[in-house]
Amino acid sequence: MNANFASATFESPSYDSKTRFLHWISALLILTLWFAGEFLDWVPRGTPRISVRSSHIVAGVVLGVLLVIRVLWRRAGGVQLPLVGNELVAKASGVTHSVLYALMTAMVISGVALVWIRGDNLFNLFTVPAFDPGNKALRHDAKEIHGWIANILLALAVMHAAVAVWHQRVLKDGLLRRMWPAKPPLP
Ligand code: HEM
Ligand code: HEM
To answer: pTM, whole model, 2 decimals?
Structure first.
């Protein structure tokens, strides 16, 4: 989100607490959502599965709200730090961050679309009517697309996390400190 380049050092400032909170709560939600979605078929049918699926939907909507707050905050008041590395590396991390934002947005949109297309039963309390109940192919494709985006997001997030850990453990440049949720760790 920032076009300047630099090296991280132990004197580097950190992201502000709101940015760090939004980063880690979103990461936690995404991981939980991925597991809940991927292993939903293992949950017994009936009320248990309806409860897990409904919780997945509610948590997904919460992620969407947090995403809007995060983007607004990053643009309005959040600390902007220069990207680390030479021009190429810094560009690559800038692009990665943008793609992560795009994938998070795509997850929320495809999830809401999935509920709308398939229809759903939320906690046995509310019913969302299916957009086109007879269209099995559309329902199947909507779920496949949502699942594929989830897997791509998770794969990119794992790579992104691995790079952050590599900076911390191998390059020992203190990059992870900038985003650390609490007291920044030493390398
Ligand atoms: C980062 C956010 C999210 C992640 C990582 C995620 C992940 C997943 C995964 C992996 C599946 C299984 C797909 C498959 O088996 O092919 C799934 C299914 C589903 N997701 Fe999400 N999801 C997210 C957000 C949302 C949102 C925002 C909604 C709705 C508002 C939603 C609604 C659903 C529904 C209805 C299913 C189908 C469950 C079933 O099999 O009956 N998801 N999700
Ligand atoms: C689903 C999981 C994750 C997503 C979607 C994600 C997304 C992002 C995004 C969009 C940024 C740019 C800053 C911002 O606007 O907030 C960022 C920065 C950062 N993330 Fe993550 N992240 C995830 C997980 C992780 C994990 C697990 C780690 C560490 C092990 C990590 C370490 C960092 C660090 C150190 C930065 C700052 C990079 C810099 O200052 O150049 N992230 N992350």
So the answer is: 0.92
Which residues contact ligand 2 via a Cβ below 6 A? 1, 19, 23, 26-27, 30, 74, 81, 83-84, 93, 97, 100-101, 104, 157, 160-161, 164-165, 175-176, 178-179
Task: Identify how many contiguous H helices and E strands the chain contains and give both numbers.
Answer: 5, 4
Q: Under DSSP, is residue 113 helix (H, G, I), strand (E, B) or coil?
A: helix
Say which amino acid occupies 93.
S
CA of 73 to the centre of ligand 2 (A): 15
Tell me the per-residue pLDDT of 54-109, one tens digit each, with 9 for 90 and over.
Answer: 999 999 999 999 999 999 999 998 999 989 888 999 999 999 999 999 999 999 99
**Complete domains list, the chain, with CATH:** 5-179 (1.20.950)
Strand partners, 127: 121
Ligand nearest to the CA of 107: 1
Gap from CA of 146 to ligand 1 centroid (Å): 6
CB atoms within 10 A of CB 13: 9
Contact 146, 153 (CB under 8 A): no
| Residue 60 near residue 109 (C-beta atoms within 8 A) | no
Please report the atom of ligand 1 found closest to the CA of residue 58.
Answer: 30
Cβ of 149 below 6 Å from ligand 1: no
